Amino acid sequence: MKNLTSTPAERSRALIELIFAGVLWGFGFIGTVWCLQFLSPAAILSYRFGMAFLASLIILIFRKVPLAILKNELRLAFVPALILWLCLMTQTFGLKYTTATNSTFITTLYVVIVPLLHSLSGQEKLHWLHWFCVFLALLGTGFIVQVQDLSELNWGDLLTLICALFAALHILLIGQRALNTQNDFALNAFQAFWICLFSLLFFPFSEKWDLSVLNDKGWIGLLVLGFGSSLIAFYLQVRSQKILSPSVVSLLFLLESPAACLFAYWLLNEQLSSWQWLGAGLILVACGLISLKTEAVEHSV
After folding, report:
1. What is the mean pLDDT of residues 104-124?
2. pLDDT tens digits along 40-74
3. For site-directed labelling of 164, which of 4, 80, 107, 141 has its Cα 20 to 30 A away?
């Protein structure tokens, strides 16, 4: 459940922070495509979260966070990190076989999974506006992916569907952990630590770990993934989920998809049809509606 004592100003701040996080994650799709030319999926995740953890550790030491709190956050971060690692591994492998545009919009199907799981468990009663926004988002996703049935999905698309399930589970887990954490930043730091460790297990079984072969775009992609997508964006998620419900958060994360779509058009020369542009617009409308009406949703749960 969300923090019922939060003020309107705090909820507005959380909305803005999640929008910014969505833009960072949107560019992360582009960074991953650039990195996949030179590094394996496991190497990308290991390096990006290794950088995020080392930077976070320096900040935690500087802040002199008590050891007892660090141990608590290390324990809390384990399960969410495992689920997020599975999410990102399936997504990254999927990007080897599908476009960045398809990947980001298929991933957004977690917007349906999150409220269903949360409402079925009896933890949240959904406002009608939420379901209307879900419908708009699904319609938009259908226009973007442009498949008539599941048989038209390739392996990359199917892996990304699995990623969407893990993404929904991660949002729900963070929603639970966020209310028990004593230090948001430390929780995110140890989430990065665990993901880096899980990815390193693949070192003996995969090639393409050599950083020296990266070109300028590869380095830009890796640095943005490490410090933007992994350090800043996931920290903002943890902090915002102390205030907003998982269902509202999942809808706001949809902004990641139009952002990635625009970045892919601009930086990867991925062409979009008029139907795909319409789909992106519908998702933006869904996010805009839920952002403007968050107060109504908050008071209905």
Report:
1. 73
2. 999 999 999 999 999 999 999 999 999 999 999 99
3. 4
What average pLDDT score do residues 267-289 get? 78
Closest CA to 128 of 290, 292, 15: 290
Contacts 24+ apart (CB under 8 A), 125-131: 125/300, 125/301, 126/247, 126/300, 126/301, 127/293, 127/296, 127/297, 127/300, 127/301, 129/289, 129/290, 129/293, 129/296, 129/297, 130/247, 130/248, 130/251, 130/290, 130/297
3-state secondary structure of 38: coil
What's the burial of 161, exposed, middle or buried (CB within 10 Å: 0-12/13-18/19+)? middle
State the Cα–Cα distance between residues 38 and 31, nearest whole angstrom: 12
Question: How many Cα atoms within 13 Å fall on the side-chain side of residue 232?
Answer: 17
Residue 17: C-alpha distances to residues 71, 113, 239, 252, 253 (Å): 27, 23, 9, 10, 11
pTM of the shown model: 0.79
Reported as a single tens digit per residue, the pLDDT across 209-236 is 999 999 999 999 999 999 998 889 888 8
Are 10 and 243 in contact by the 8 Å Cβ rule? The answer is yes
Q: Could you tell me the maximum CA-CA distance found in the chain, to the nearest angstrom?
A: 56
